[in-house]
Write the structure tokens for this entry.
Amino acid sequence: MKEAIQSGARIYSKPVLFLYDFFVLQFSNSLVWKCPSKKLLDLYNQHISANHLDIGVGTGYFLDKCTYPSRPRIALLDLNPNTLEVSAKRICRYQPEKYQADILKPISVKPRFFDSIGINYLLHCLPGDISNKEIVFKNAKSLLNKNGVVFGSTILGDTSQANFLARKLLAIYNTKKIMSNSKDTLQDLEAVLAGNFRGYSVKQEGRVALFSARV
Ligand SMILES: C[S@@+](CC[C@H](N)C(=O)[O-])C[C@H]1O[C@@H](n2cnc3c(N)ncnc32)[C@H](O)[C@@H]1O
């Protein structure tokens, strides 16, 4: 299991992160997953607060492009030191806090509570099916203020309506364990949100589930 967890984060070397915005956020999101990054930016703009924790930060693209309600406290949490370094540099104007940690384990962040937590494109990197990934929501919940929101998106494993490129990429990524989402379904995600939060919203855009949930 430890090996699988690390492979969902290990791929993010500095050269991969250099290509990430173009290959994932521009090319793949529009043409492969059929969920343009503008939809994900809209999700950030809808839910981001001025006291925000982002988990699984990648290049920090959305944290850089989104609009905050006021000057924010931003905390970055990731297993991979490269993504922490690259994203922190990108948004250095906000003087972000950095935490290197595995979100599948209990998390210690001080000061502890946030008004929003982003987990964008994180779940599909984690091993197992959605029930194995429920711990992410439980850990995130433990760091949220009352009325706080957790939001994000994840690529689903269902290939029934996927185009040729999506099928190919899903197969390659799952074989290499860059993604582990072949069993991830919208129904399972909805059940986990319903079981852990007071209110939630989930919808599908192309191959991607977009969600938000409040404690
Ligand atoms: C696909 S990237 C998403 C980047 C960014 N959120 C975005 O939407 O563009 C997944 C991120 O999750 C991180 N990650 C993978 N497994 C993790 C784990 N177990 N704990 C914390 N971060 C993890 C990776 O290092 C990477 O930064």
Remarks:
- The radius of gyration is 16 Å.
- Helices lie at 2-10, 14-32, 37-47, 61-65, 81-90, 130-141, 164-175, 186-196.
- Residues 5, 8-9, 12, 56-58, 61-62, 78-80, 83, 102-104, 120-122, 125-126 surround S-adenosylmethionine (CB under 6 Å).
